[in-house]
Amino acid sequence: MRITTGEDPAFLIAQAADAIEQLVRDTPDAVLGIATGSSPEPLYAEITARVANGLDLSRLRITCLDEYVGLAPSHPQSYRRYITEHVLEPWGIDADTAVLPTGDADDPDAAAADFEQRILAVGGVDLQILGVGPNGHIAFNEPGSSFASRTRVVDLTPSTREANSRFFDSEAEVPTRAISQGIGTILESRHALLLAFGEGKAPAVRAMIEGSATEEVPASALQDHAEVDVYLDDAAASLLGRH
Ligand code: GLP
């Protein structure tokens, strides 16, 4: 893992945006994996600003990591809606080309299998953006997920539903299940870029980087990934030993 820390999140975001811009300049039809959540939002806004300044992303292909089971595409908290608003529309990318799971499918297991097949069909992910949950989850792979897991329907832990309830009117409205890329699926991305900001992420960040690789900390699976860049503000990095 290459770890970059800094006091100023804007400096970190600019570096992460540079990695996306370089990828697209080298390979205009590259596959970029989008994470949802608050951590990558400033990165998507920075890319939107670069598009306004002439960066052409029209051939970029987009995949996502996960989706709540049971939310219609139009639901304000569906990840499809997030990606449409933060990525597809502002970046000028045809929504029909994006690889997203169907959250409100009649058969979520079939929808998960179809999602995995479509990720493979685009040739896998060139650059995967990631956040990390306070309990160390990546995508919606909760503690205990196998490092070999593939895309599937998962149960959300009470702590994740509580953490994500800030986006809903009440915790009761947070879905109990999600379709999530597996850890094994995520590890096949050719390059991963993880963002974590704030002291609330510091314990998960320490376990991810300095703990042993264990399924109790899903993000620690990234220790076995050959190309990972981690961007941390000083608060998220505050529990790391000096290296
Ligand atoms: C959700 C998503 C994850 C994301 C995590 C952290 O649970 N499924 O992909 O990394 O939240 O989100 P935030 O960046 O808002 O802290």
TrEMBL record:
One example GO MF annotation: glucosamine-6-phosphate deaminase activity
Q: Which UniProt keywords apply?
A: Carbohydrate metabolism, Hydrolase
Q: Name one Pfam family in it.
A: Glucosamine_iso
EC annotation from Swiss-Prot or TrEMBL: 3.5.99.6
Q: Any one Gene Ontology biological process term?
A: N-acetylglucosamine catabolic process
- EC main class here is hydrolase
Q: Indicate the segments forming the Glucosamine/galactosamine-6-phosphate isomerase domain, all copies.
A: 13-225
Q: Which GO terms describe its cellular component?
A: cytoplasm
Question: In which domain of life is the source organism classified?
Answer: Bacteria
Q: Which CDD domains match?
A: GlcN6P_deaminase (cd01399)
InterPro entries in alphabetical order: Glc/Gal-6P_isomerase, Glucosamine6P_isomerase, Glucosamine6P_isomerase_CS, NagB/RpiA_transferase-like
Per its UniProt record, what PANTHER family does this chain match?
Answer: GLUCOSAMINE-6-PHOSPHATE ISOMERASE
Q: What is this protein called?
A: Glucosamine-6-phosphate deaminase
